[in-house]
Amino acid sequence: GMQSHLQALLSLYKLFCPEQVTITLPGKMKTYFRSSEGPWKAAIAAVRQRNQGISPLSQAVFLGTSQPRSRKRKWNAQLVIPASSANTSHLQEDREKNCFYLCSTNESFPVEQLQTFPQLLQNIHRLEFPSQMGSVLTNPLLLHYMNCVKDESIYLRLYYWMGQMLQEECPWCVVDNPCEEEFRSFLETIYKAECFLQEGFSACEEFLYKTLPLWDGFCCRSEILRLVSWIPLSSSSDIKSYLYDPLAQLFFTSSIYFKCSVLESMKELLQNWLNCNVIQVDLESSS
């Protein structure tokens, strides 16, 4: 029967081998297969128009999506812990009283009142996490909390937010993006958080695997190679296809400085893997 998914498959066959499909297909149908050539076509068109002195008429964003998001809301606005709505109308004296009261009850503890490590220890099971997950990256106490309390929902919220921001701000995946310095600062913030936690973020790993084939080896070079050094240990086949192969293409055609930078990043990646493996072995032996 002419079901929608079968029509989409037949239309794909007809695109590449029209002689194999003789039936007439409807002009409008649901899209089941995205074009894998979208990013390359957009990048080539942008370079061609730039060389002709004409600004791109349209912006192609990350991996084939059509419309860029509005840049009215900056990513760095998400790195400040917002005050809880319950406390915005109180004076400082009232906040201090509330803080004392919260320490003696079972109510949640507003995260913007968290100032010292002893406060974290006393209220670690009553923290009210911020709505802006990006603020966790710049707050050592909240990073300590993530290390101590393995709450999957916190990681899922952070990874979702981080993945969205990396996707929308990446200069070489968004045509004619003028905010390279902001993105460089964002990558540096993520790297410092990974060093603090001594582990890489899965959202960052996914971003690297998707964008390294499109990377020119120049934009945000030091920040990208630092993030590469924190990729979690995974199967050798994934590492080869998603990490080594894209870097090898740049490695053999780049300067000696780039080659040394890549080798240094690989050495740090190996050291991080060894450290993580030693910690895991120690935990297993102690249990």
UniProtKB/TrEMBL annotation:
Main localisation: nucleus
Domain of life: Eukaryota
Subcellular location: Chromosome, Centromere; Nucleus
Keywords assigned: Centromere, Chromosome, Nucleus
Ranges that cross the membrane: none
GO cellular component, one term: nucleus
A biological-process GO annotation: mitotic sister chromatid segregation
InterPro entries for the chain: CENP-I
The keyword Nucleotide-binding is annotated on this UniProt entry: no
Family indicated by similarity: Belongs to the CENP-I/CTF3 family.
Name of the featured protein: CENPI protein
